[in-house]
Design goal:
Layout lengths: L1 H10 L5 E2 L10 E3 L5 H11 L2 E5 L5 H15 L3 H4 L9 E7 L4 E11 L2 H11 L4 H30 L7 H5 L6 E7 L3 H7 L2 E2 L2 E4 L5 E4 L7 E4 L5 E3 L7 E5 L11 E3 L6 E3 L1
Parallel strand pairs: 2-3
Antiparallel strand pairs: 1-7, 3-12, 4-5, 5-6, 6-14, 8-13, 9-12, 10-11, 10-13
Helix pairs in contact: 2-6, 3-6, 5-6
Bound molecules: ligand L4NPZUNZ and 2-oxoglutaric acid.
Keywords: Dioxygenase, Iron, Metal-binding, Oxidoreductase
GO molecular function, one term: gibberellin 2-beta-dioxygenase activity
Protein name: gibberellin 2beta-dioxygenase
Length: 268
């Protein structure tokens, strides 16, 4: 009924929507096994602040195991998921993102990558079998960190600075590196009424040196180009995307936003 739907709209008024636009085909692709990767990475950072990585060495098994655990968690009843929250900033969060009052059509698990914290939070995340969840997350983080270090080392070489100057920030025990599992639930009623997608994770920059993103095979991630236009990134579940964060701006335009909205989507 129109009146009820209007109430739903009012209730989620702070959550914005966006139009569908054609996918952007110009994202630079970096083959990590290419000896010239360092040169291509620096160029991609300068031109876009964003690129896709293939031949990254993270196995399909680790990715599959992590995704299975994530979906298991997000498909739990709401009351069970809330036992892993509220996000402090770590733990389960829904609609409220970060400390500044931002909201989006999203639910997530935010974890520090430290072993003790993952173990402690796992007890509240998949309480039936926290060890399986913990192992899937820790093994995945280890492999992704290794790949991120390779990217940072190639980047440092390409920039002509000492090879380990950037990767040591990630390897440091005191690194504030974190791990985010995002789930963008469908909202067909609101989308049918507005004809637009709901924004999951709104426009933002990332404060870190780099963010490593992967999603299952659904669209939604957008980046902002130098000319100020927002373009949708074609999904590729077998690759990772790297976004240059505020701490490592190389002159490229680094803003990005995700406005994901399809069923069963789960990205990290
Ligand atoms: C709205 C926000 C959430 C965020 C901090 C911020 O103000 C802008 C960037 C967000 C981000 C993106 C990368 C990481 O997922 C994250 C943990 C981070 O450090 O910056 C999140 C922040 C968050 O979820 O709290
Ligand atoms: O879920 C995504 O694909 C993007 C999330 C994001 O932009 C972030 O965590 O910084």
């Amino acid at each position: 009924m129109v009146v009820q739907s209007q109430l739903v709209f009012d209730h989620f008024a702070p959550i914005k929507s966006c139009k569908h636009t054609a996918l952007f085909t110009g994202i630079p692709v970096i083959d990590l096994s290419d000896p010239e990767a360092k040169t291509h990475i620096v160029k991609a950072c300068e031109d876009f602040g964003f690129f896709k990585v293939v031949n990254h060495g993270v196995s399909d098994d680790l990715i599959g195991a992590l995704e299975a655990q994530a979906l298991k968690f997000f498909h739990l009843p709401q009351s069970e998921k809330e036992k892993a929250g509220p996000a402090d900033p770590f733990g389960y969060g829904s609609k409220r993102i970060g400390p500044n009052g931002d909201v989006g059509w999203i639910e997530y698990l935010l974890l520090n990558t430290n072993h003790e914290l993952i173990s402690e939070k796992s007890l509240f995340i998949l309480r039936e079998n926290p060890e399986i969840f913990r192992c899937a997350v820790e093994e995945y983080i280890l492999a992704v960190k290794k790949m991120a270090c390779e990217v940072l080392e190639a980047m440092a070489e390409g920039l002509g600075i000492e090879k380990h100057d950037l990767s040591r920030l990630l390897k440091d025990e005191r690194s504030d590196c974190c791990f985010r599992l995002n789930h963008y639930p469908p909202c067909p009623e609101l989308e049918a009424l507005s004809g637009r997608n709901l924004i999951g994770f709104g426009e933002h920059t990332d404060p870190q040196i780099i963010s490593v993103l992967r999603s299952n095979n659904t669209t939604g991630l957008h980046i902002c180009l130098r000319d100020g236009s927002w373009v949708p990134v074609p999904p590729d579940q077998r690759s990772f995307f790297i976004n240059v964060g505020d701490s490592l701006q190389l002159g490229g335009y680094t803003r990005q936003c995700a406005s994901k909205d399809q069923t069963g989507r789960c990205a990290q």
